[in-house]
Amino acid sequence: VSQVWMRPFDHEEHEHPCDRGHQRVRKSGVDGRVRSFDEIPHTGRNGWVNLVKFWREDRFRQLHKHMEKTFNTLGPIYREHVGTQSSVNIMLPSDISELFRSEGLHPRRMTLQPWATHRETRHHSKGVFLKNGEEWRADRLLLNKEVMMSAAVKRFLPLLDEVARDFCRMLRAKVEREGRGEEGRRSLTMDPSPDLFRFALEASCHVIYGERIGLFSSSPSLESQKFIWAVERMLATTPPLLYLPPRLLLRIGAPLWTQHASAWDHIFTHAEARIQRGYQQLSSSHGRGAEAGAAGGRYTGVLGQLMEKGQLSLDLIKANITELMAGGVDTTAVPLQFALFELGRNPKVQERVRQQVRVSWAQAGGDPQKALQEAPLLKGTVKEILRLYPVGTTVQRYPIKDIVLQNYHVPAGTMVQACLYPLGRSAEVFEDPLSFNPERWSSSREEGQRGDRTGFRSLAFGFGARQCVGRRIAENELQLLLMHVLLSFHLSVSYTEDISTTCTLILQPETPPRITFSKL
Ligand code: HEM
């Protein structure tokens, strides 16, 4: 059944007798009439029954697979009601580009807002998750200058490079200390995920606070480990809360909510201490008057820049910095696990990327930005990993005007989700979709062959004005780490089966893969 609906919809011979969704789309192509919203194929009209099914069958954790299966059964568009949420789900680039055209100036996406205000917590009132509309836009334009613009990237790239190099130094020492084989060429097989989480937190702190926190030392602080746990807990408790109504939330969701709120408390406390310190430094440097900026011209991270410019209130700086901290650790540590695994199980691809990296690194004379520019396969590797393992499995929008998707009418204000996992694995969109091939992104060949010129195929960071604000940090952080790892180690894995994945708020391996690092 799986690929049936992907064939051209207006050809009689492609009708599939048991595929209701397919029939509807095909039929609409024949009489040319735009079908009503109610006719969109759906997974069951009763949201509460669906919620119970989701809960019983643990579908929240397998949401990506559930979506893939449902598209294969119902066609490229379907409706789903789960608890309080109702959405139209789509997965084809042409539909996503249509959605993008209707998102408006202040794109809105799904938030935890209704429940955040339902039970009072100390911190939700300060802004996290509450931003949509004009308030979001104003903050976002200011943030973009510090994290998205090329001048900002130039400022923080050397900081990321420093952390990536230190990570590899730490890893080389570990392999030498704990590995097998002759001295200088030892190998170590291990689960690198705890080290990758430390790397991601160290890198975030360096870019956001302009501060190193010493996570590669032999005794990293417990406080940082607690921060990592808090982000994990916050992410894991979010999805069910998105679907529960207030009354149910109070009865069965209360422990979840308590865990969620206390995780946020921890994340805020971690950020608050640093923000306070930054504020004091800034006040004292202004008191002294003379130097340029909080640290006499030294780059003091995104926080320092925002404080120095003084365009956001202290409360808004806190909310935004905390959101950057919360959004910046698991989102990079997890794709790195997938990347090391895929490079390990595809040794030929690994070697091709390494060859390119070696040349570019040798020619860059220590300039990390130049090295990345000359090694497009690194960028391709990151895109390829996020295609197969999108950190966020959906991107949501509430269009501000009525739109037509797959010839169905979708009214303004409907929640529409672009489902990235099925998109990335679709044979309709990608040639040989299950193969790991970073080179596919360097040629326009495939795009021509697929007949898709919308460009809406690499969407792991979302799209438009509301795309991921940490995108430039993440892309550079991932590429730099992979570059230094490939220069230092050969990677291999002892098994080649696919990794089982699970969805908390982000897509991650069920069990972190073990990787063999062999010193080069
Ligand atoms: C590979 C890594 C990452 C991926 C795949 C990713 C993905 C995403 C996606 C899909 C969105 C929603 C975009 C949309 O609705 O169009 C988003 C939003 C966001 N991300 Fe990321 N992200 C990553 C890394 C980061 C990092 C490193 C940070 C912080 C330093 C970050 C902070 C945020 C924030 C604050 C938002 C909300 C932006 C807004 O609504 O204005 N992300 N991310």
TrEMBL record:
<dbReference type="InterPro" id="IPR001128">
    <property type="entry name" value="Cyt_P450"/>
</dbReference>
<dbReference type="GO" id="GO:0034650">
    <property type="term" value="P:cortisol metabolic process"/>
</dbReference>
<keyword id="KW-0503">Monooxygenase</keyword>
<feature type="compositionally biased region" description="Basic and acidic residues">
    <location>
        <begin position="8"/>
        <end position="24"/>
    </location>
</feature>
<dbReference type="Pfam" id="PF00067">
    <property type="entry name" value="p450"/>
</dbReference>
<keyword id="KW-0472">Membrane</keyword>
<comment type="similarity">
    <text>Belongs to the cytochrome P450 family.</text>
</comment>
<keyword id="KW-0349">Heme</keyword>
<keyword id="KW-0560">Oxidoreductase</keyword>
<keyword id="KW-0755">Steroidogenesis</keyword>
<protein>
    <recommendedName>
        <fullName>steroid 11beta-monooxygenase</fullName>
        <ecNumber>1.14.15.4</ecNumber>
    </recommendedName>
</protein>
<keyword id="KW-0408">Iron</keyword>
<dbReference type="GO" id="GO:0071375">
    <property type="term" value="P:cellular response to peptide hormone stimulus"/>
</dbReference>
<feature type="binding site" description="axial binding residue">
    <location>
        <position position="468"/>
    </location>
    <ligand>
        <name>heme</name>
    </ligand>
</feature>
<keyword id="KW-0496">Mitochondrion</keyword>
<dbReference type="GO" id="GO:0005506">
    <property type="term" value="F:iron ion binding"/>
</dbReference>
<dbReference type="GO" id="GO:0008203">
    <property type="term" value="P:cholesterol metabolic process"/>
</dbReference>
<feature type="region of interest" description="Disordered">
    <location>
        <begin position="1"/>
        <end position="24"/>
    </location>
</feature>
<dbReference type="GO" id="GO:0020037">
    <property type="term" value="F:heme binding"/>
</dbReference>
<dbReference type="GO" id="GO:0006700">
    <property type="term" value="P:C21-steroid hormone biosynthetic process"/>
</dbReference>
<dbReference type="GO" id="GO:0005743">
    <property type="term" value="C:mitochondrial inner membrane"/>
</dbReference>
<dbReference type="InterPro" id="IPR050479">
    <property type="entry name" value="CYP11_CYP27_families"/>
</dbReference>
<dbReference type="InterPro" id="IPR036396">
    <property type="entry name" value="Cyt_P450_sf"/>
</dbReference>
<dbReference type="GO" id="GO:0006704">
    <property type="term" value="P:glucocorticoid biosynthetic process"/>
</dbReference>
<keyword id="KW-0809">Transit peptide</keyword>
<dbReference type="InterPro" id="IPR002401">
    <property type="entry name" value="Cyt_P450_E_grp-I"/>
</dbReference>
<keyword id="KW-0479">Metal-binding</keyword>
<dbReference type="InterPro" id="IPR017972">
    <property type="entry name" value="Cyt_P450_CS"/>
</dbReference>
<dbReference type="GO" id="GO:0004507">
    <property type="term" value="F:steroid 11-beta-monooxygenase activity"/>
</dbReference>
